[in-house]
Specification:
The protein is an alpha/beta fold and 400 residues long. It has helices spanning 5-14, 56-69, 110-118, 153-169, 208-219, 250-259, 276-286, 300-312, 317-320, 336-352; strands at 18-27, 37-40, 46-48, 73-78, 94-102, 123-130, 138-142, 145-148, 173-177, 188-195, 200-204, 223-228, 244-247, 268-271, 293-296, 323-324.
Amino acid sequence: MRDLLPHLRQWYADGGRFAVATVIDTFRSAPRQPGAAMAVSDEGVVVGSVSGGCVEADVYEVAREVIQTGLPSIRRYGVSDDDVFAIGLTCGGVIELLVQPVDLASFAEFDAVADAVDSGQPVAVATVVAAGDGLGQRLVVWPDRIAGSLGDSRLDAAVVEDAVAMLDQGATAIRYYGAQGECGRTEVGVFVQAFAPPPRMIVFGAIDFAAAMARVGKFLGYHVTVCDARGVFATRLRFPEADEVVVCWPHRFLAEAVEQGLVDRRTVLCVLTHDPKFDVPLLEVALRTDAGYIGAMGSRRTHEDRLSRLRAVGLTEAELARLTSPTGLDLGARTPEETAISIAAEIIASRCDASGQPLSSTTGRIHRETADPAVARHESRSLPSARSSHGTRVQPAAVR
């Protein structure tokens, strides 16, 4: 959705109605995760994707219908086993979409939401996706205020509580409630899309490998900071892709970032200095943070020397076990760009608890549920129960 915002903001400013199709739930090997979106303008322009090409043509037609009627709709698509001409996902998964109209009258808070997303401020949009006549009702939640309603003040209060917690985790998922917000009930399904600030990647060491890492980090959606104590090397000219270039002793900068609450389990720390006077004090701080990935570059000899120095300053074996060194997957990387790709691949594999092996040498599902609790989704229902006998899509009528 973030990638679509420039287009959506222009369409919204033009005053017309457009439709946004959002993945709200998935099952098995679905190609896109909840939150993935595709939008269609009133002139038929398409941006975004919800399946990587499997069902976009049909979603386009649904979106055009939603633009005409102004009524939201739920669509579900699954693998087409018996009818090769049926619309379905060849990957074997199931996705469920909310297709909703957006215009000045139906979503007065759109600009405020877009402003928050663009500025990196947390905001969540909660939309009813299962509640009879309530389909499409919307509540916008900021940490300090709300706008809109889902039709009942007690339901609003329950959803706000969950949405604030999901913003802290960066999680997007469906949550279920009773009609008045009761826990353990399933009458009302609410899709909470959390736009948390992007996760942080802090790269220590203003070297050519760091420049490549900053480029890859930005491509993956991280807020990238490059930090080095040497001002002659840590310059904006050398790191134009980074969001921040900081001249400071690395361990001091990281300690300040921790105090400011900027390091959490989504944070990636890449230590590329491979110099003991920088590495040891820095890793002494890093290994006691909540950072989700802590990688340090260097040879195996450097790694063993680094571990000895860290033990000498009091780090435990449990703390040292959090260190990934030498950082990166075994890809045969040599250049800064190749090395950055190998590190990025390891970060992704670590986040998803994946093996990092070639898919051709593994078995089972390709797309797995992420092991990262920050992006984990709710698993309170099973989508296949609503599939047809042929495994193709089931299309409930739009709720009026």
